[in-house]
Amino acid sequence: MKLCVFDFDSTLMDGETIDFFAEPLGLKEKVATITDKAMQGEMDFFESLTERVGLLKGLDFSLVEEICSQLPYMPGAKETIAELKKSGATVVCFSGGFRTATTFGKEILGYDADFSNVLHHKDGKLTGLVGGDMMFDFSKGDMIQRLQQILGISRADTMVVGDGANDRSMFAHADTRVAFCAKEILKKEANIIIENKDLTEILSKVNL
User: Fold this and answer.
1) Which residues are part of the catalytic machinery?
2) How many domains does one find in the chain?
3) 3-state SS of the chain?
4) What is the pLDDT of residues 25-58, one digit of tens each?
5) The CATH number of the domain where 104 resides is what?
């Protein structure tokens, strides 16, 4: 493997970042329901993202940062990334979630780069607006093709790992496609399926 791309929420991190944000507002269940619809492929990702972020309007940005510093990472995430990098692979995180989480995760888990979305905040509070690299259903597929071109890496040397519907677009551009504790809609696109919350299982299933 020369390029390994991981989703963040429910893949590298054990849970959905936006659900953690919604909890202090008493909106966790409402937001989680929308998240699940998006991950099952029952709702347009862009629409679900903007709707969920809109519900966070008024949340203190300092609390957002605090939550991101305490997120629970998936068992085996750090070890798996270290092994992949040791073998010479470039390891990247694509997230339909947020830069505050993925940038902090980069320092903890050690991946090489992160592409995600930015929560707009003003006067210390979230405005309910969002923008960034991963706003649409097609975003991950679009970005992985750009990286492959820049790095000179083919789909044969690319591995992707994800759990939800918005990972399908990047699955279309990799020969090694890992569905990790995934929704049925993504399992159909995968050639490796892992049902246990242990990312190190990937290492025994791929040719590094």
Assistant:
1) 7, 9
2) 1
3) CCEEEEECECCCECCCHHHHHHHHHCCHHHHHHHHHHHHCCCCCHHHHHHHHHHHCCCCEHHHHHHHHCCCCECCCHHHHHHHHHHCCCEEEEEEEEEHHHHHHHHHHHCCCEEEEEEEEEECCEEEEEEEECCCCCCHHHHHHHHHHHHHCCCHHHEEEEECCHHHHHHHCCCCEEEEECCCHHHHCCCCEEECCCCHHHHHHCCCC
4) 999 999 999 999 999 999 999 999 999 999 999 9
5) 3.40.50.1000
